[in-house]
Amino acid sequence: MASENAIDYDYRSVDDETGLKDAISELKGKVAERKALLAVDCEGDSLSRKGALTIITVATEEKVYIFDVLKLGQLVFTSGLGEILEDKSREKLTFDCRQDSDALWHQFKVKLEGVLDLQLLEVIYRRENPTAGSTVNTPRFSAANTRGGRRNRRSQRPDEVERINGFGRCIELYLQDEKLTKIKDKGKRLIKLDTKVWTRRPLTDDLIHYCTVDTMAMFRLYNKMKDVNGGEQARLRVASEKYVDLYRGKTERSFDEYETNAYLPLDIIPDKGTLDFPAANTECTGCHRRFPREEFSITQLRKGGQKCRVCKEIKRLEDVQKHREDQWKRAEEHVYIPEGMSDHAWHYGHEPWEKPWENSWRW
Ligand SMILES: [Zn+2]
What we know:
The protein is of the alpha/beta class. The protein is built from 13 helices and 8 strands. It is globular and about 65 Å long.
């Protein structure tokens, strides 16, 4: 079944075998003749090696293909798409490829390669343009921090812990396109209301638009940011190679805060002017990744509970949260809850049966 042009972009929704054959040969043609850059994005329910991967969107700058993996299963990949995804020389834009790649490998034996990850490119861009995304804390990745010019051991440089931005936030910050943001927001709301939304069929128009907009926005983001990397394209490639394997390469996943959080894992993007990483021999007890010994303080190492700087920050935030909850509980014991108001309403500002978000989300 082919659907065309309900919005500005040409797209094709693929959910039967004939359509699949057609779409793959069309896509292969485009890829071969123009050496086209691709954008790839997966959707599902708790997408990872454990959760379901139900949709994969693959796009060129001109056309978006939305493959129904829930319906077609492994066939989507054995029909030729797997080959494209595994081809190292075929560059693919992704935005945070970690879960997609984990799911593709552990469920479909497809090893995603040739990735240029835009979440990483945005960090590189932000380092070079400290005013971009100024609401985000910008670490001092300045001259003092170039390799060789560093004074302290790594454990003493907590300012190098950087936040990563979500895709929606990047669209807001760098593309400033209201229409795009609206479609994206609408999709997000649908997903929030129903976490199984990607497992229901038929896919609604809103969700198809969401897939289309996602991949198209990747090209725009890339075109805006790629030059900042000036001549250092290889650095983004090396970083993306590490990122794409970060979850996939684990024997076992923990699915905890130390594994998935809003910070850039350390030693993913090589230092400016380099393409390698310092030798790693000591394991962090939080994320279980290995780092140079100087990542950890002497005291930590002596006690044996050493955590990398990112995991230290996660632990600190957890402690703050726990402290807040303790205080809350203590305050609660003395608090007066107005008559007719339930505990729930006192905490959340509305009764359980009232759904204030439905009003504010209606538009
Ligand atoms: Zn760690």
